[in-house]
Amino acid sequence: MSVFSPDSLELNRKLPLWYQVSQSLRASILGRSPEAPLRLPPEDQLAQHYGVSVLTMRQALKELEAEGLISRHRRRGTFIEPDTRRDRPVRLQGSLDAIVAQQSGDRTTLLGHGPRAVPAELAGYFPGVRETMTYRRLRYGQESGEATNWAENHIHPLVADRLDPADLERGWPMTKVLRDGLGIRISRITDTVEARLADPETSRLLDVPLLSPILHYTGVTYDEEERVVDVALIRYRGDRFSFSVTVEPEWNPRP
After folding, report:
1. Which of 5, 51, 54, 126 shows a CA-CA span of 20 to 30 A to 220?
2. Which residues sit opposite 216 in a β-bridge?
């Protein structure tokens, strides 16, 4: 039987090694395909794979076990919890115009763009695609003028060829660029928001302490052919972002 194969990792010696290993392994676990095996390789093989000591590997695995992502059994080995990320999500429905309006209003700086290999955790969204065009933006609050979030959009190559970066430099939300700039008929967008810890790049761009809590947003945009045209990864400062939902239930007065 084959075993789970984690992604490779280029370690930064300025950060705790166990943290980098745990985050890389966490991404591999959450981004694995449904048919991937649940058993992880032994500690010594994982340590050799990442180029760290067995003690560092154990600390990384202990962190993942505390999160409930894995379970460890003496003599049997380490296993990914089968129900990882299979809880039924809360679903909020709204119009595309409402999404565009919510994304608008922030001052935006385009940090850069270019082709990039599809990250392992996003491979399932782009079957058969080796590279996406990636756009990175830093956004600021209208009143404070301080950085509130930074976004990384992975655009399908069939769409990216027609995208004009000038639209993003003008501050257009990516959803507006796809719909109004390129004329793409968007069928749906799925959003996920979860708590994470600030990585080095997020710490630098948003001016927050390393490993401090942030909100991590993933938005997946589908066209009318149910093809993913954009995966947006947005990191929000927790102290400068709030999420508000208005529910308007149907009400039928009694006759």
Report:
1. 5
2. 194, 235
Contact 210, 196 (CB under 8 A): no
Both ends of the chain: CA-CA distance in Å? 66
In whole angstroms, how far apart are CA 6 and each of 22, 40, 47, 89, 153? Answer: 11, 9, 11, 26, 24
133 within 8 A of 152, measured Cβ to Cβ: no
Q: What are phi and psi of 135, to 5 degrees?
A: -115, 130
Q: Among 143, 140, 74, which residue's Cα sits nearest to residue 111?
A: 140
Query: Of 147, 154, 220, 146, which is closest to residue 163 (Cα–Cα)?
Result: 154
pLDDT at 90: 44
Q: Token pair for residue 113?
A: 């763009």
Bin 171: left if φ > 0, else alpha if -120 < ψ < 50, else beta: left
Which among 110, 178, 90, 107 has a CA at the least distance from the CA of 147?
A: 107
Q: Is 211 helix (H, G, I), strand (E, B) or coil?
A: coil
pLDDT category at 242 given cuts 50, 70, 90 is: low
User: How far apart are alpha carbons 198 and 206 in whole angstroms?
Assistant: 9
Cα(56)–Cα(169) distance, integer angstroms: 43
pTM score above 0.70? no
Neighbours of 203 (CB within 10 A): 17
**Residue 39 parent element (H or E):** none
Q: Which amino acid is at 181?
A: G
Tokens (6 digits) for 141: 């609050």
